[in-house]
Amino acid sequence: MLTLADMTRTGLGASKSPIFKPIAVDRGMLVTLNLNKTKLFLEKFFGFRTVKVNDSLLLARHASDRSNGNAYWILSIREVVQIDKPQNMYNHWGFGIPGNEEVDKAYHAAVQHKDEYGIRRIQKPAINHGSYSFYLEDISTNWWEVESRPEANSYANGLNGTKEYVSEEIVR
């Protein structure tokens, strides 16, 4: 099975001369219908640290441990009156966690706290694209995946020197 380490070592998939060379993907943006409910959901369910910049803007950073070389990233969340383009499950934010049991625990917690956090839909855990995961849709049609990959202890151990699962379909 091909790993990210193999891709890095061999240069597979790398552009010979990219137009620019970013050092990281460090943020993304999403919209919400309710900034306060989204703030609660991100803090209490996913463990984000948040800062409310103003009445319509929230910044959220995942509180992951950076001591093992893992980078963190920022979500910029803007409150809107209406969602012009509702998301679908294939446009989702993903969280890797170590082990199928943790996926099951997260699923049961989502079911238990569905009303509290405004979760609209929750799919049961299953094998999806080579990993064990479930998806949930938040109050504003944003989809989130919680997954354990076959070699997913790369999430627990950091990516330095560990193998991370890469589907062969991605490489073809």
Describe this structure in words.
With 172 residues, the protein is of the alpha+beta class. It has one domain (26-171): Roll (2,3-Dihydroxybiphenyl 1,2-Dioxygenase, domain 1), CATH 3.10.180. 25% of the residues lie in helices and 28% in strands. It has helices spanning 4-10, 35-44, 100-112, 114-117, 153-157, 168-171, and strands spanning 27-32, 48-54, 57-62, 74-79, 92-96, 121-122, 126-128, 131-137, 143-148. Strands 5, 6, 7, 8 and 9 form a 5-stranded mixed beta sheet that branches. The protein has a 4-stranded mixed beta sheet with strand order 1-4-3-2, with helices on one face. The longest helix is centred in the middle third of the chain and has 13 residues, at 100-112. It is globular and about 45 Å long.
Q: What labels would you give this structure?
A:
single chain; 172 residues; alpha+beta; 2,3-Dihydroxybiphenyl 1,2-Dioxygenase, domain 1; five-stranded mixed beta sheet; four-stranded mixed beta sheet; 6 helices; globular; disordered C terminus
